[in-house]
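Much of what follows relies on a compact textual record of a protein's fold. An example makes this concrete, so a full record is given next.
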Amino acid sequence: MHEYARRLPNGIDAEAYNPGFVPGTGLTPDADPVSRFAMRRILPAMTLTPLATGRRAAGRYLADVVLGTTRAPTGSYVDRTREVRSSEESYDPQREGELWDAVERFTATCAA
């Protein structure tokens, strides 16, 4: 996100958003039957704890970031409802540049 923030024109923002663990989203279609059952029927109860986020809450938190209700400057990392410091590695300009270059190569191949 930091590299995007540096490269995007003024007035265009990019933030990284982490909804946390959101059970019941269907993101495990290739999992074994026991795991799929647990994700669908058991783990949603975790949304009653701080360990997981419900689907509606995750969507609302994302909307809050997009609409500016949750303040997050461009290039920031938002964990559910607040801006937090991202990993130390994410602040390394050399790594950011290398990642940018890799994404450019990979997406150029897909676009061709």
